[in-house]
Amino acid sequence: MKVPLLDLNVQYEPIMDEIKAEIEKVLESHKYILGPQVKEFEEMTAEYCQCNHAIACASGTDALVLALKALNIQEDDQVITTTFTFFATAGSISRVGAKPIFVDIKPDTFNIDPQKIENAITTKTKAIIVVHLFGQPAEMDKIMEIAQKHDLKVIEDNAQGIGAKFDGKFAGTIGDIGTLSFFPSKNLGAMGDAGMCLTNNDKLAARLIQLRVHGENPKYFHKWVGLNSRLDTIQAAVLKVKLPHLENWSEARRENAQYYYKNLKDVSQIKVPFIHEKATSIYNQFTLIAENRDGLLEYLRKNNIGCAVYYPKPLHIQECFSKLGYKKGDMPIAEEISQKVISIPVFSEITKDQQDYVIETIKEFYA
Ligand SMILES: *Cc1c(COP(=O)(O)O)cnc(C)c1O
């Protein structure tokens, strides 16, 4: 048997004809950038996430840069974020000239530790970028309280959490701006790069719309230096077909996760993901803490099971951030967790047979 980490073949099979027809329409219209399908997709996403504005752009990374620029984060400003995330979260802070301030995570949810945010605040702190890692929202109640107390902006990097909720509210709509990524392997993936900003604030929405076209308004008049970060119409056409399926896909992931919870609970060498009582996860990843992680990784791969380490090295000790002065030992939880995590296949279309095979192979390894 073979179990990939993600199987786009089975995901696309039932909807491919519809997608091709939608792409065909774009080809006939020749409106390749920010065409009418982009606006339709923006409206659909805003409605799905129950927020006022959705502004599409070229990638999840660009969405973060646009969000920081819209909030006027610039040189000398400090932005607090988690050290345990995909690189883009912190890379975007550097890209606007600001300084990333890393904090450690909670050992159970892998999300940023609100307590440690408070300790990292200085007079230069302007914002917090929260990441909803692996599809589970961070503790937004505590984080918003801290932000309000210290007058900080909040960006939610929701690249991995579209449709997840915290305390009944959609992730990505609780802070000032939320960002989404439609990278092909995300829960809602395009056929290339694509991203989006979400906000309930009319002024920020207007700024984001302007910033994604070089800060111009009207045309050829520039108030700010923005980006070229517009969404291709073809990507919007693809995403428009896929979005109505997202809720079912997420539900399937949750069921698959439950099956693992039930059948892996007696394996003492691993810990299954912990979900906070106020959070619902969309299980972008199902990430275990495993004894002899590297051995397990090798064994699963040898048996044709896709698995991955997200992420093998926390950001505070990445070479590109060495000037920031962090050293090994500064964020002990993230450093330890990065040596122990392994993500196993949980995609919507995985079969019970495939899951049984994953479960049996894990048990076999530890037996
Ligand atoms: C995927 C991802 C991004 C970047 O998205 P792109 O669309 O690949 O630019 C940012 N942050 C996190 C947490 C991600 O997982």
Secondary structure elements and pairings:
Elements: H1 8-12, H2 16-29, H3 36-48, E1 53-57, H4 60-70, E2 78-82, H5 88-95, E3 99-103, H6 114-120, E4 125-131, H7 140-150, E5 153-157, E6 165-166, E7 169-170, E8 177-181, E9 195-199, H8 202-211, H9 233-242, H10 246-264, E10 270-271, E11 279-280, E12 286-290, H11 293-302, H12 332-338, E13 341-344, H13 352-366
Parallel strand pairs: 2-3, 2-4, 4-5, 5-8
Antiparallel strand pairs: 1-9, 6-7, 6-11, 8-9, 10-12, 12-13
Pyridoxal-5'-phosphate (PLP) binds next to helix 4 and helix 5.
Q: Unreliable stretches, pLDDT < 50, 5 or more residues? A: none
Q: What's the number of extended β-strand segments?
A: 13
**Biggest sheet details:** 7 strands, mixed
End-to-end distance, in Å? 20 Å
Kindly report the name of the CATH homologous superfamily of the largest domain.
Type I PLP-dependent aspartate aminotransferase-like (Major domain)
Q: Roughly how many Å is the radius of gyration?
A: 21 Å
The first-level CATH class name of the largest domain: Alpha Beta
Question: What is the strand arrangement across the widest sheet?
Answer: 1-9-8-5-4-2-3
CATH topology of the largest domain: Aspartate Aminotransferase, domain 2
Number of domains: 2
User: Structural class of the secondary elements?
Assistant: alpha/beta
Helix percentage range: 25-40%
Overall, the morphology is: globular
CATH architectural type of the largest domain:
3-Layer(aba) Sandwich
Secondary structure tally, helices: 13
Mean pLDDT: 98
* Proportion in β-strands: 5-15%
